């Protein structure tokens, strides 16, 4: 017996009690860690591109706040009538056929659909709508008219339409250009010095399209309108105040505006945040609340329960 | 417990430190931060572009040269400031050179045409002008050459070795284009000399003279007018020659000279309601005359035109509402006819309505602006067509039409607070059969000076909304609020009005309502009460035990009871000397803990405990030190203990317990 105690004491540097840690305490510690991690995830700002909750240079927080735009997690949340509304899409995830039908219906019933794309899946929408215009997918470079370097080309040529009212120049960021856009539909062109870098060597080569190249185009479809912009980065916080980008966005965001978030790729943090939101939503329901009440009661009554058990024993 | 807490914190910290890497994901980034983007200049494109522009100029393609220059909006280029400045000046020079050469081209073309028509009087000053322009071109080319050298000199420090070759090629191309401009200047100079020689040769031609008379000098529109004159060559009449009559700068008719060189042209004055009409006649040699006569032009004469001037007075309302009729009226004033005159009215250049004047020359119309008409000032143009029959001129008047939309006045009386839940309802939802609801009731008034019908009134609060229609006046709007766990405190209430009429603007009112969620508050209060009760029960029990131990100390009945809950239980066998010594030690420790007010904690060594209890034990410290020594040997050595050691330990423990009893009884 004494040997047992000695072994315990030697192993636990003189732990006089010699007791193993109670399972309740381990559970409490796990719960505490999970809670701390949840708080950390909840308050850690998103850093995902174009995300409404991302306050850094590549996020859309400023755009959401400054233009009173509502982030949209599902097309199901669109209002019943699309007249006097704008839906802005950055198509970085493929669309289901149901999504495409929903978009077609949205434009058909009078909504303004703004597709901001460079290397994403915008052409899927254009194909579905039966248009010939396409996002080229090749980077638009401008070695002369740019902000700092040729990857940030500056647009200087505009058609006189409401979307370009008060706009003298726009700066894009790793943009692409439009192909097969009818001249009378083009709203903005790149400069004479720009080119489409199809072979990605950073230099103009024989056969590569030279400027001016269309970068913004507008189509009237049924009762609605489709606006194509060959660069989604124009709405990120870091680009909002470049030249007249803000004015341009002001012009195209009409009525009640929504920014689609459901076609942006999710990173683990976003998934964790979504799970937390789901949990919070579940707790806000009646059944969630009932569960929470039971949990609070159980935790509050635990010491009394243990004491009674001890006395009985 | 402390170790676990530290471990937990470490896990959280590591998770947060790695968070950045995890959250950034693996998706390719299709942009860069413009603030931190690397700045790089490229001088080759503008140099190549200037080469292109000068190439076009050298080919006399001035239109495209100007178009290319317009593409070079140098203020927007990403170039060093000093280069932007010199390039802007270079742009101006290039533009001026292009414009000058274009003008020279036009002047020389004009000289060529005048020479072909034998208009020697007119060609001489134009040839002088062309000579002056060529001198200007020479100066400009010199300046362009200097500016080119200056610009290339300024570029040199900015050019990286990688760019040097491309830049050198662009420079060579530009300089070659400038050389071609020198050749162009020579070409123009040669052309001018050719024209000067031709003009000199034609000085031997007979000079002609053409006169022009008008009768009458004042003519009503539509009435006949006669133009006449004589064509002579050095005072000799020139018969059978065609004379062109120009009115307002355009050829109107022609006449042929008679034997005496005279001509006459009679025609009805067109219904041109303008006070004066310029008339001039020309003789241009044709066929064989080209080698015999110079061209001639008459003096410029003015025909005073008579007609009835007309005016229109327009009266429009101060404010006009889209979708509501507005009376636009006016009166045509003229000494000619004012009855049955055609009036057309345009809004921003688009036809709005047409009207005919009544017997008093007045018109009125209830104009209806479309619902899409935007608020603000619009240009209303009223045009009265001329009437040739009465020789009455037309008239027009522009007025500004102020189109406004009215925002209905919305008075809202929201409740100061709302209590949730108000009712418990059963709903048919499969997942949530039970729903707790609240209700908010809102009263208010809508006022508008214009008729209102079927306006949609939407109440939004806590993510839900309710809509009703109203025709203005008082309204009441209620809405069920869903139960929300977090719905407590101030909640914003938004009331939006979407009028059906185009003359109304949407309106919105916001108010703050304090929402009290009784269920939520109940949960919190209940949890707090339960936790408080549990704490009180536990605290009072501890206090009671302490009091009992301080004021009514008792001899422990068994070693285990003495040892207390923090000491291990030792159950030695009959001849287990090591166990008996430890049992004696722990029974002593129970007493020493109370004497010294120090607990033997699990992480303490026996020696640490001894050192902490030594000061308060005072005279008993030596006894406890000996006992501790025995216990340490039991625990940490292989020494074999005998009965004597057991007796010693038990004796020492007994002495310590007695000491504790004596001291405790003093209180």
Secondary structure layout:
The complex is a heterodimer of chains A (313) and B (667).
Chain A: H1 2-11, H2 23-43, H3 61-66, E1 69-72, E2 85-89, H4 97-108, E3 112-116, H5 122-128, E4 134-135, E5 139-141, E6 154-155, E7 157-158, E8 170-171, E9 178-179, E10 186-189, E11 195-197, E12 214-221, E13 224-229, H6 237-240, H7 245-252, E14 256-260, H8 268-283, H9 286-312
Parallel strand pairs in A: 1-14, 2-3, 2-14, 3-13
Antiparallel strand pairs in A: 4-9, 5-11, 6-8, 7-10, 10-12, 12-13
Chain B: H1 2-24, H2 44-58, H3 62-71, H4 81-116, H5 120-155, H6 161-201, E1 208-210, E2 213-215, E3 218-220, E4 224-233, E5 236-237, E6 242-247, E7 250-256, E8 262-268, E9 276-283, E10 296-297, E11 301-306, E12 310-315, E13 325-334, E14 342-347, E15 350-356, E16 362-368, E17 376-384, E18 395-403, E19 409-413, E20 417-420, E21 423-426, E22 434-447, E23 455-461, E24 464-470, E25 473-482, E26 489-498, E27 507-517, H7 518-551, H8 559-563, H9 577-596, H10 606-617, H11 621-636, H12 643-666
Helix pairs in contact in B: 2-3, 2-6, 3-4, 4-5, 4-6, 5-6, 9-10, 9-11, 9-12, 10-11, 11-12
How would you sum up this structure in a few lines?
The complex is a heterodimer of chains A (313) and B (667). By secondary structure, chain A is α/β, with parallel strands linked by helices. Chain A is built from nine helices and 14 strands.
Explain what you see:
With 313 residues, chain A is α/β, with parallel strands linked by helices. Chain A folds into two domains: 61-260, 3-Layer(aba) Sandwich (Rossmann fold), CATH 3.40.50; 266-303. Chain A has helices at 2-11, 23-43, 61-66, 97-108, 122-128, 237-240, 245-252, 268-283, 286-312; strands at residues 69-72, 85-89, 112-116, 134-135, 139-141, 154-155, 157-158, 170-171, 178-179, 186-189, 195-197, 214-221, 224-229, 256-260. Chain B contains twelve helices and 27 strands. In chain B, the strands form six sheets. In chain B, strands 3, 6, 7, 9, 10 and 11 form a six-stranded mixed sheet that branches. In chain B, strands 1, 2, 4, 5 and 8 form a five-stranded antiparallel sheet that branches. Chain B has a five-stranded mixed sheet with strand order 20-27-26-23-24. In chain B, a hairpin with a 2-residue loop joins strand 14 and strand 15. Chains A and B meet through helix 1, helix 2, helix 8 and helix 9 of A and helix 1, helix 2, strand 22, helix 7 and helix 9 of B.
């Amino acid at each position: 017996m004494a040997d047992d105690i000695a072994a315990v004491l030697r192993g636990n540097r003189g732990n006089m009690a010699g007791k193993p840690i109670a399972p309740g305490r381990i559970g409490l510690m796990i719960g505490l860690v999970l809670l701390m991690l949840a708080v950390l995830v909840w308050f850690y700002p998103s850093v995902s591109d174009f995300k409404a909750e991302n306050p850094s240079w590549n996020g859309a927080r400023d755009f959401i706040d400054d233009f009173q735009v509502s982030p949209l997690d599902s097309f199901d949340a669109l209002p019943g009538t699309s007249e006097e509304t704008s839906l802005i899409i950055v198509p970085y995830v493929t669309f289901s056929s149901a999504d495409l039908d929903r978009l077609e219906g949205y434009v058909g019933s009078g909504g303004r659909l703004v597709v901001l794309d460079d290397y994403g899946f915008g052409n899927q929408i254009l194909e579905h709508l039966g248009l010939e215009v396409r996002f080229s997918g090749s980077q638009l470079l401008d070695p002369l008219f740019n902000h700092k370097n040729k990857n940030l080309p500056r647009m200087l040529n505009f058609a006189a339409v409401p979307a370009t009212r008060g706009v003298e120049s726009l700066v894009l960021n790793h943009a692409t250009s439009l192909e097969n856009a009818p001249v009378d539909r083009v709203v903005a062109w790149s400069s004479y010095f720009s080119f489409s870098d199809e072979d990605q060597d950073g230099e103009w080569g024989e056969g590569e399209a030279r400027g001016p190249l269309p970068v913004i185009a507008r189509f009237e479809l049924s009762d609605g309108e489709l606006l194509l912009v060959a660069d989604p980065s124009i709405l990120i916080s870091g680009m909002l105040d470049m030249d007249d980008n803000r004015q341009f966005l002001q012009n195209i965001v009409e009525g009640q505006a929504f920014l689609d978030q459901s076609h942006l790729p999710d990173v683990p943090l976003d998934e964790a945040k979504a799970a937390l939101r789901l949990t919070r939503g579940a707790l806000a329901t009646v059944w969630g609340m009932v569960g929470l009440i039971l949990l609070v009661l159980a935790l509050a009554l635990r010491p009394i329960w243990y004491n009674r058990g001890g006395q009985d024993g | 417990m402390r170790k676990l807490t530290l471990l937990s914190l470490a896990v959280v910290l590591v998770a947060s430190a790695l968070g950045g890497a995890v959250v950034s994901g693996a998706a390719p980034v299709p942009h860069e931060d413009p603030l931190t983007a690397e700045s790089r200049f490229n001088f080759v494109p503008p140099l190549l572009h200037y080469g292109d522009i000068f190439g076009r100029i050298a080919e006399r393609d001035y239109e495209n040269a100007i178009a290319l220059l317009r593409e070079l909006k140098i203020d927007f280029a990403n170039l060093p400031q000093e280069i932007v400045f010199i390039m802007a000046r270079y742009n101006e020079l290039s533009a001026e050179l292009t414009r000058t050469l274009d003008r020279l081209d036009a002047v020389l073309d004009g000289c060529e045409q005048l020479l072909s028509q034998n208009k020697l009087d007119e060609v001489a000053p134009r040839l002088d002008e062309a000579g002056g322009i060529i001198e200007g071109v020479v100066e400009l080319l010199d300046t362009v050459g200097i500016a080119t050298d200056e610009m290339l000199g300024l570029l040199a420090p900015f050019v990286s070795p990688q760019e040097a070759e491309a830049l050198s090629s662009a420079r060579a191309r530009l300089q070659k284009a400038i050389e071609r401009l020198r050749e162009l200047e020579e070409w123009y100079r040669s052309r001018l000399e050719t024209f000067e020689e031709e003009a000199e040769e034609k000085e031997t031609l007979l000079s002609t003279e053409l006169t022009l008379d008008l009768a009458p000098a004042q003519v009503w529109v539509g009435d006949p007018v006669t133009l006449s004159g004589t064509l002579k060559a050095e005072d000799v009449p020139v018969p059978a020659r065609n004379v062109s009559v120009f009115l307002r700068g355009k050829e109107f008719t022609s006449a042929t000279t008679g034997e005496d060189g005279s001509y006459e042209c009679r025609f009805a004055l067109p219904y041109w309601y303008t006070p004066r009409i310029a008339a001039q006649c020309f003789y241009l040699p044709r066929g064989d005359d080209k080698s015999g006569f110079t061209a001639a032009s008459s003096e410029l004469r003015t025909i005073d035109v008579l007609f009835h001037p007309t005016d229109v007075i327009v009266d429009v309302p101060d404010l006009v509402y889209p979708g509501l009729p507005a009376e636009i009226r006016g009166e045509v004033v003229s000494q000619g006819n004012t009855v049955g005159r055609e009036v057309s009215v345009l809004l921003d250049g688009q036809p709005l309505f047409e009207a005919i004047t009544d017997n008093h020359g007045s018109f009125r119309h209830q104009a209806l602006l479309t619902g899409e008409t935007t608020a603000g000032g619009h240009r209303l143009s009223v045009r009265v067509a001329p009437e040739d029959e009465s020789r009455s001129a037309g008239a027009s008047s522009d007025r500004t039409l102020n189109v406004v939309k009215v925002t209905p006045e919305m008075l809202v009386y929201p409740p100061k607070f709302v209590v949730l839940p108000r009712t418990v309802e059963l709903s048919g939802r499969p997942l949530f059969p039970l729903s707790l609801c609240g209700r908010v009731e809102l009263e208010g008034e809508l006022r508008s000076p214009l008729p209102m019908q079927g306006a949609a009134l939407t109440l939004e609060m806590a993510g839900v909304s309710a809509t009703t229609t109203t025709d203005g006046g008082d309204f009441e709007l209620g809405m069920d609020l869903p139960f929300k766990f977090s719905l407590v405190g101030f909640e914003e209430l938004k009331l939006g009005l979407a009028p059906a009429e185009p003359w109304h603007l949407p309106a919105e009112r916001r108010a703050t309502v304090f929402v009290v969620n009784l269920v939520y508050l109940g949960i919190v209060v209940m949890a707090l009460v339960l936790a408080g009760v549990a704490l009180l029960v536990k605290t009072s029990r501890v206090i009671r035990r302490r009091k009992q131990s301080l004021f009514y100390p008792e001899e422990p009945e068994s070693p285990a009871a003495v040892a207390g809950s923090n000491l291990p239980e030792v159950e030695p066998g009959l001849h287990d000397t090591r166990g008996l010594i430890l049992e004696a030690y722990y029974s002593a420790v129970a007493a020493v803990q109370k004497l010294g007010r120090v607990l033997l904690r699990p992480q303490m060594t026996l020696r640490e405990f001894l050192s902490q209890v030594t000061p308060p034990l005072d005279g008993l410290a030596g006894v406890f030190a000996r006992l501790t020594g025995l216990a340490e040997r039991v625990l940490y050595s292989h020494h074999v203990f005998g009965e004597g050691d057991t007796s010693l330990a038990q004796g020492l423990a007994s002495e310590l317990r007695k000491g504790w009893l004596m001291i405790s009884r003093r209180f």
